[in-house]
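Section 5: illustrative case.
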């Protein structure tokens, strides 16, 4: 295989791997902007993947599958909200516990609800080729010959940038994450804003899990996210809480992941275990060089109660 063909395959794989990651990271960006951190992104994706496959079986279509995936992620997000906003638990501790809960409940439901169907795969989303653009060398097949959910993910980046930077709602969300007391005094309902952002994060992370299961392999397997949720969390930090920065971080991590998948095509003689670690090593190196210069929302992970 020539270098040109390898680059094309690498980019195609990176976009495929990166789409679930992008949905999840964009959801976390929305949530963290309002001051709510979701360590349980992994769990949201698992719930989205499981209920996405289950919904696709129930409705006999991928549309129903993605709706159920969004609802599955939102359900775990709502649980996180009740634990943190109502019972005032620590957001990080709640996230860790919910990750364990999501892994356990999806594994249990896999062995019961999906036990007879797990060997069957559902119909994949068809790729939509955009004329002319899909013929561009290397990037054409990667970005302009994909399924509709890939295009929705890419278009969500400028949409979320516009939401956060050019609308009054975006200003309220940033105020809730930076100075919730001041925002409340100016008429912003911080509690409602954080709830909406949290549920939006759950829906997007659930769709990310659904993309992984429905458009990826076509069925659900135990712990199939394998750490993608944590990389999405890192992508938000590495992207400096900006939509286009998150896109760049996702592409970096996705290319690293795609390389370990396609490296055998180049005849790279590196132990498989090291290649499997590559995306996580890239994440660690990227964060190690950035954490001292990062500026998260001031009230991130701090619960706000107006009567305190």
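Designed sequence:
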């Amino acid at each position: 295989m020539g270098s040109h063909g390898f680059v094309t395959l690498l980019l195609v794989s990176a976009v495929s791997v990166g789409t679930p990651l992008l949905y999840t990271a964009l959801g976390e960006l929305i949530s963290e902007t309002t001051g709510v951190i979701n360590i349980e992104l992994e769990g949201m994706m698992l719930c989205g993947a499981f209920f996405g496959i289950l919904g696709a079986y129930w409705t006999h279509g991928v549309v129903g599958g993605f709706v159920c995936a969004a609802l599955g992620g939102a359900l775990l997000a709502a649980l996180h909200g009740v634990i943190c906003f109502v019972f005032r638990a620590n957001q990080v501790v709640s996230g860790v516990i919910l990750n364990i809960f999501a892994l356990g409940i999806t594994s249990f439901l896999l062995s019961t609800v999906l036990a007879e169907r797990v060997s069957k795969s559902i119909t994949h989303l068809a790729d939509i080729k955009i004329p002319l653009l899909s013929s561009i060398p290397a990037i054409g097949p990667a970005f302009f010959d994909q399924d509709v959910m890939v295009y929705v993910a890419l278009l969500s980046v400028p949409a979320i940038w516009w939401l956060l930077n050019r609308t009054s709602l975006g200003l309220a969300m940033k105020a809730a994450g930076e100075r919730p007391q001041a925002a409340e005094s100016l008429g912003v309902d911080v509690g409602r804003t954080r709830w909406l952002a949290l549920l939006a994060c759950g829906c997007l992370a659930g769709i990310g899990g659904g993309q992984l299961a429905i458009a990826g392999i076509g069925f659900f397997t135990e712990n199939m996210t394998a750490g993608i949720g944590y990389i999405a969390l890192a992508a938000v930090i590495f992207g400096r809480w900006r939509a286009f920065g998150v896109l760049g971080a996702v592409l970096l991590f996705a290319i690293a992941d795609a390389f370990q998948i396609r490296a055998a095509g180049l005849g790279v003689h590196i132990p498989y275990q090291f290649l499997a670690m590559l995306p996580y090593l890239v994440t660690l190196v990227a964060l190690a060089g950035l954490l001292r210069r990062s500026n998260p929302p001031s009230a991130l992970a701090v619960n706000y109660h107006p009567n305190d």
